[in-house]
Specification:
Acyl_CoA_acyltransferase, 8-stranded mixed beta sheet, alpha+beta, 2 domains, disordered N terminus, 7-stranded mixed beta sheet, GNAT_dom, N-acetyltransferase domain-containing protein
Length: 326
């Protein structure tokens, strides 16, 4: 709990009784459309996550919620396979009448103190250029620029890709490429077959059937799966979605669960051919022929220690699904 300049502001852990006020603040400040996907997306992230419900904090002025800050639970495995409970810095909002008074900073530092006491290992996120300086002032450091790999569908697609400088749309385009992930991953044989090819080294997400099903389950995101063999899921596959980035149609490869580079390239080409996307993009687990590096174009990963020091730059082993959405 804290006071800020001007007085009268209280910060505390959010409670279930705050839900209505928090949603009202989010609707008012974020411009959520009535009947849109935003509210369902919010609850999918923060209440259905198999890693746990998101911890959150509120700022109150005269008893009214004027600020909100939440962190997404995430569990990593270290290089030895030991689970590490972490959080990702995600949603935060301040009422327009109370901006410029340090509420974002107050909420964040209160959260940092609580999470450290509770034993969470570290915070990570990929803030944009506008928000990154604020995080760096609060003890975050730049971990690394994540390496992006791309594959154009054809020669002419490269020009479309290079002109696509806008942020990608949040909501996906529908496609008939592959199979709906929610349908494919309900099959235990499929999900366990894919997870045979999950990363086994580096600091990586703790993947499980429950995680993979949750991560791909939100309907408006239209996640799809392509398998190397429909009769033998242990031969691997890709999880992807198709989204707009300006005038370009982009296939985002969020999970590359394959045994080798040849399989990965073949499946990416299939995704491009079936979806009509101009190019595919992902965070390759290793440098692969056919995936062209885009120097200086990957998201910038930042982190802050809580109970433990974050990994060194070369120890992270992240997929696009770890960073592309939240």
């Amino acid at each position: 709990m804290g006071d800020m300049k001007g007085g009268g502001v209280e910060v505390r852990r959010a409670q279930a009784s705050d839900d209505a006020a928090v949603l009202g603040l989010l609707r008012e400040t974020m411009g959520w459309d009535a009947g849109g996907h935003d509210e369902d997306f919010f609850w999918w992230k923060h209440r259905l996550n198999p890693f746990g419900e998101s911890p959150a904090w509120v700022a109150l002025f005269d008893g009214q919620v004027v600020g909100y800050r939440t962190f997404l639970r995430w569990t990593f495995l270290d290089d030895d396979g030991k689970p590490l409970r972490c959080v990702r810095a995600v949603d935060t909002v301040t009422h327009p009448d109370h901006r410029g008074r340090g509420i974002f900073r107050l909420l964040t530092l209160e959260a940092v103190a609580d999470l450290t006491r509770e034993g969470d290992a570290w915070i990570f996120n990929t803030p944009n250029d506008q928000s990154r300086p604020g995080y760096l002032k609060m003890g975050w450091t730049v971990s690394r620029r994540l390496p992006v790999g791309v594959m154009p569908r054809r020669v002419g697609s490269a020009a479309v890709m290079l002109r696509a400088r806008e942020a990608a749309d949040l909501w996906s385009q529908e496609t008939t490429a592959g199979r709906p992930a929610a349908e494919a991953l309900v099959d235990d044989a499929v999900v366990t077959g894919l997870l045979l090819h999950a990363p086994t080294t580096g600091v990586r997400t703790q993947r499980s059937p429950e995680y993979l099903r949750w991560r791909t389950s939100f309907g408006p995101l239209h996640y799809r799966v392509v398998l190397a063999s429909e009769s033998d899921p242990s031969r691997g596959g890709l999880v992807f979605r198709v989204r707009r980035r300006g005038r370009a149609l982009e296939a985002a490869i969020i999970e590359e669960l394959v045994p080798d580079s040849v399989t990965a390239i073949r499946l990416v080409r299939r995704v491009l051919a079936e979806s009509g996307a101009d190019y595919a993009i992902g965070l390759p687990r290793r440098r692969r022929p056919g995936l062209l590096p885009l120097p200086g174009q990957g998201p910038i990963l930042t982190s802050r220690p809580l109970a433990r020091t974050p990994p060194s730059p070369g120890d992270w082993s992240l997929a696009l699904g770890d960073v592309e959405l939240f």
